[in-house]
Amino acid sequence: MVVCDKNKINEKRIVGVPDLVIEILSKTTAKKDKLMKFNRYQKAGVKEYWIVDPSNENIDVYLLENGSFKHTGIYFKDDQIPVHLFEGFSIDLMNIFRDAD
In this structure, what CATH number is given to the domain that contains residue 27? Predict the structure, then answer.
């Protein structure tokens, strides 16, 4: 997660809503991440939510608009993914989905 407001961070926990949450799917958590957490983060007001699927090497991006998440894209290994919280900043997914040698 990314929290941009340093006043939300104290020694023991985050107080308030993170700005960006990134979930990495596994077979045992996929349903929870795609349904339960999705709805909780939307209701809480998380601005940006990424769901990373390492098996298929892609990331679904959702942005909060008028209180609801809007799917803004699916990004693959060869793509650059924009971090909407930081204008002009993106991540090269080749650095994320590297082949393990």
Answer: 3.90.1570.10
Q: Do the domain assignments include residue 47?
A: yes
Number of domains, the chain: 1
Instruction: Quick: pLDDT tens for 25-69.
Output: 988 888 888 889 999 999 999 999 999 999 999 999 999 999 999
CA distance 36 to 15: 21
- Strands 48-53 and 58-65, bridge-based pairing: antiparallel
Which of 3-7, 44-48, 66-70, 78-82 is predicted least confidently? Answer: 3-7
Q: For residue 33, count other CB atoms closer than 10 A to its CB.
A: 19
